[in-house]
């Protein structure tokens, strides 16, 4: 407990235990349930250890001396029975939450999900909004109370995408497109980061995730479209070079960019990304017409195995 307080820093806020969305809340509940069930075993064992050490110390002549004692049915039943029951209960909860929290499982909602494509780079995050046709770096904005469907990949080393108050980590990997659903139930600014060691500036792979009203979200999209530069393919390759980055926004990006990043190694060798398509989002090039749902079926089968959702 002392270590937890020290690691919490000056904010005094335990992000994982202060969830702001349905996925985060379920994960917090599972943490509490697991901790309580484990405490049912651990606490008595610690207490009994202290009592036994004190009671049967060498100079204590008041306790009975039984050198021939070797078995107690009651004690054996207690020692093996209680942990067995706890493990069965814990397994039942774990199985239930494992299926409930499958990362690619859609969140029940009356609202259509907002799709955001996530690409981890060294050492920055690129977010593309295929429906809105905009892109950002190290900054996310989405409407509150609306499911967010993240498609995730990596164009560099494997990383782990994490917004602690909204849900658990999921890996980003080259040549794979993972899917993660999250939702923020209230407006606010949430901390996001990469949770993997990926080299020199891995600690700077943080981003801000803002949940805002629908009106503010739509106004922000229009502002980005009207005031931000385009992200060209050449611009992307420069962005993908090793190095850190400040927050950036782009009014458009090459059509099918996320799909190209995922598919660039599909021929079994390190094939360079196709450079010919530098058109902005909204064009009808072949790579841009690739269906993400099809990619999910082909490439996301292992998402629950690789996710810490």
From TrEMBL:
Gene Ontology biological process: ATP synthesis coupled electron transport
InterPro entries (UniProt xref): CcO_II, CcO_II-like_C, COX_ARM, Cupredoxin, CuRO_UO_II, Cyt_c_oxidase_su2_TM_dom, Cyt_c_oxidase_su2_TM_sf, Cyt_o_ubiquinol_oxidase_su2
Localisation per UniProt entry: Cell membrane
Cofactor note: Binds a copper A center.
Cytochrome oxidase subunit II copper A binding domain location: 111-223
Keywords: Cell membrane, Copper, Electron transport, Lipoprotein, Membrane, Metal-binding, Oxidoreductase, Palmitate, Respiratory chain, Signal, Transmembrane, Transmembrane helix, Transport
Transmembrane parts of this sequence: 30-56, 77-99
Known cofactor(s): Cu cation
EC number, UniProt record: 1.10.3.-
Keyword Secreted: no
Example of a GO MF term: cytochrome-c oxidase activity
GO cellular component, one term: plasma membrane
Ribonucleoprotein is among the record's keywords: no
PROSITE patterns tied to this protein: COX2_CUA, COX2_TM
Region feature (Disordered): 269-309
Compositional bias segments (type: Basic and acidic residues): 272-300
Role noted for this protein: Subunits I and II form the functional core of the enzyme complex. Electrons originating in cytochrome c are transferred via heme a and Cu(A) to the binuclear center formed by heme a3 and Cu(B).
NCBIfam families attached to this UniProt entry: CyoA (TIGR01433)
Family membership noted in the UniProt record: Belongs to the cytochrome c oxidase subunit 2 family.
Protein name in UniProt: Quinol oxidase subunit 2
Gene name of the record: cyoA
């Amino acid at each position: 407990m002392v270590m937890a307080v020290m690691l919490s820093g000056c904010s005094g806020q335990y992000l994982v235990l202060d969830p702001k969305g349905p996925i985060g809340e379920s994960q917090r509940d599972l943490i509490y349930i697991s901790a309580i069930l484990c405490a049912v075993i651990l606490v008595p064992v610690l207490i009994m250890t202290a009592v036994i050490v004190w009671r049967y110390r060498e100079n204590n002549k008041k306790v009975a001396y039984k050198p021939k004692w070797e078995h107690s049915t009651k004690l054996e039943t207690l020692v093996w029975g209680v942990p067995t029951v706890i493990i069965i209960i814990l397994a039942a909860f774990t199985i239930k939450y494992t299926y409930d929290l499958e990362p690619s499982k859609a969140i029940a909602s009356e609202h259509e999900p907002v799709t955001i494509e996530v690409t981890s780079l060294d050492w920055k995050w690129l977010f593309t909004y295929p429906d809105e046709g905009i892109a950002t770096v190290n900054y996310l904005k989405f409407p509150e109370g609306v499911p967010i469907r993240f498609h995730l990949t990596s164009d560099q080393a494997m990383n782990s995408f994490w917004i602690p108050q909204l849900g658990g980590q999921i890996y980003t990997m080259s040549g794979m497109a993972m899917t993660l659903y999250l939702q923020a139930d209230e407006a606010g600014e949430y901390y996001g980061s990469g949770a993997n060691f990926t080299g020199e500036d891995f600690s700077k792979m943080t981003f801000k995730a803002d949940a805002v009203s629908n009106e503010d979200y739509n106004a922000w999209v229009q502002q980005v479209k009207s005031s931000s530069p385009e992200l060209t393919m050449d611009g992307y390759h420069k962005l993908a070079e090793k190095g850190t980055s400040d927050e950036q926004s782009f009014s458009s990006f090459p059509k099918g960019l996320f799909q190209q990043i995922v598919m660039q190694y599909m021929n079994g060798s390190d094939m360079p990304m196709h450079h010919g398509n530098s058109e902005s989002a909204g064009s009808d090039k072949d790579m841009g017409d690739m269906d993400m749902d099809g990619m999910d079926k082909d490439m996301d089968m292992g998402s629950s195995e690789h996710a810490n959702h």
